[in-house]
Amino acid sequence: MEELVSKLKEAVISGEDTDARALVEEGLDGGMSPRDILERAMMPAMEDIGVRFSKGEAFIPELIVAAYAMEAGMEVLKPRMSGAGEGGGKVVLGTVAGDIHSIGKNLVRMCLEGAGFDVIDIGENKTTEQFVQAYKEHNPRILGLSALLSSTMLHMHDVILAVRAVDSDARIMVGGAPLTRDFADSIGATAYAQNAFEAAVIARRL
Amino acid sequence: MDGKERMLEAFALREADRVPVWEMAFNEESIIKLAAFFTDDLPPLKFAQQMTPEEKLKLIGALFTVIRELELDGISSISLMNTEPVGDNLVRDGWGRVLRVSEEGEATAVSGPVSGPADIKDIKPYHPEQSELLMLMAAKGSFGEEIAQVFVQPGPFRESWTFLGSMEKLLFYYIKNPDFVHALARLATDFILEVVDMAVELGADIIGLDGDLAFSQTTLMAPDHYYEYILPYHKEITERVHGHGKLIFKHSDGNMSPIMDGIVEAGFDGFHPVQPQCMDISEVKAKYGDRLTILGNIDCMHLLPFGTEQEVERSVRQTIGAAAPGGGYIISSSNSIHPGVKPENYIAMVKAARKYGSYPIDVEG
């Protein structure tokens, strides 16, 4: 069992999607619970690559292949999970108005999907009204807002106010190159993540 | 000393009469807002890709007015590739890339002519047309040899990922299919070399190789991947430019520290823009100032959009103190003059550069 956990962790970290899928199947066949597989092997793999990323030992290509390997494993795990509590739940994700940049948001989406969330990506350049509409329609566990420009990140505040008017307990995560933790606090965001791995790890804890 | 001589002195890592002032890019809205300080003859506000040839000329005229009135030492041109509209704010270029145009910056590829390794053999290389370098021709015609002609062209990394329509896809293949990454880079580099030859023939003095390789924390790819997938192509391009007797710098936002040695090894003459949120210009000057001209560093993320004119002046003074002594520094914003920048702040930046930028420099960094 321990050997399988360590092999699966390694498969995710090195982005071996075929191995990850096979090892998840092997774990399930051997009697491991989906939660065990996720929490003992896959999430620690994600955290591990996040740490390597922060230390400059891993870069975006390594993140991407690891996220794909996570996703491959999750495809096997998900049908065996009992509910949203195990899977992570829904996240609505989008880039705010005036901003057409998608790369950061797409990396966050990959990591969240890899961490078991159902991500509804509403795309780029979305108005406050479109975020509110998507929130009402999908009733997500978390709303994620992205911006690459210092001029567009200001729209995040409007979105937070409008969504909280609909649901005062809405959990809203923000991220993007010009943002800081102080800025995120000042606009009333529930959480801020500095990178895509951190977003996935923090989202699991929210 | 004229603007061109001043820029070339900076590239020779020598002190000119004063620190040259130049900008890599202004976009439609910024050009129109700045030009409004000096003229009423302005085009309607829309994306260049959607303008008629007459409106494009008027926009170029407005840019020239800004450059002339602010006495900038160089002008940057880009290729205005022939495109056809294919949807709401979407255009398709000669390679078959679909680009989304935006008021906030450059057009971004949303899909490309290649979906993966299987169909790269079907791609039909596009060859640049002289008419696409209209902006450079007009700049040369208007300014002649008075100021430096900088031509900005996307580099092999950016061209490669736009063929796929997604940077994430290209970076995925960095690990999964090295041959495919090289095939895309080959295609991109052959095209870039054609564009560079044409730009030099039309009067470019300096080539700027665009395309970010880093983000705020570090480089997008590991240094080993830069050395394997990008540096050999950068070398081909710098050698071609130097063969023409011209100069070339690399532009990349973000923290480029992990691959700065590679930028020197690839043969670049300069580096832009030393983004102040993630690189320290004093450190870059100390480590690379004897081999690379440094361009940029005045913060356009927070300072130029939201700061006061006094704060802008203070930042210019400090940056000149840190980077200009000994020569080899060209002042510009840390990326471009985008619609968020207050035009008054940009004008304050240029004025402060004149106030503190006379050699010998007597302000401290």
Write a brief caption for the model.
The complex is a heterodimer of chains A (206) and B (365). Chain A is of the alpha/beta class and 206 residues long. In chain A, 58% of the residues lie in helices and 13% in strands.
Features:
heterodimer; A: Methyltransferase, Methionine Synthase (B12-binding Domains), Chain A, domain 1; Rossmann fold; 2 domains; 5-stranded parallel sheet; 10 helices; B: alpha/beta; TIM Barrel; 4-stranded antiparallel sheet; 13 helices; globular
Descriptive report:
The complex is a heterodimer of chains A (206) and B (365). In chain A, β4, α9 (181-186) and β5 form a beta-alpha-beta unit. In chain A, 53% of the residues are buried. Chain A folds into 2 domains: 2-83, Methionine synthase domain (Methyltransferase, Methionine Synthase (B12-binding Domains), Chain A, domain 1), CATH 1.10.1240.10; 88-205, Rossmann fold (3-Layer(aba) Sandwich), CATH 3.40.50. Chain A has a 5-stranded parallel beta sheet, sandwiched between helices. Helices cover 58% and strands 13% of the residues of chain A. Chain A has helices at 2-13, 17-29, 34-54, 60-77, 84-87, 103-114, 128-138, 155-166, 181-186, 196-205; strands at 90-96, 118-126, 142-146, 172-175, 191-192. Chain A contains 10 helices and 5 strands; from the N terminus they run αααααβαβαβαβαβα. Chain A has 206 residues and is of the alpha/beta class. In chain A, α3 (34-54) packs across α10 (196-205). Chain B has 365 residues and is of the alpha/beta class. Chain B has a single domain, classed as TIM Barrel (Alpha-Beta Barrel), CATH 3.20.20. In chain B, the strands form 2 sheets. In chain B, strands 1-6-7-8-9-10-11 form a 7-stranded parallel beta sheet. In chain B, strands 2-3-4-5 form a 4-stranded antiparallel beta sheet. The longest helix of chain B has 24 residues, at 178-201. Chain B is globular. The mean pLDDT of chain B is 94. The chains are: A alpha/beta (206), B alpha/beta (365). The A-B interface holds A 15, 54, 56, 58-62, 64-65, 68, 98-103, 106-107, 110, 125, 149-152, 177-178, 194-195 and B 100, 102-105, 108, 166-168, 171-172, 174-176, 215-222, 225, 258, 301-302, 305-306, 338-340.
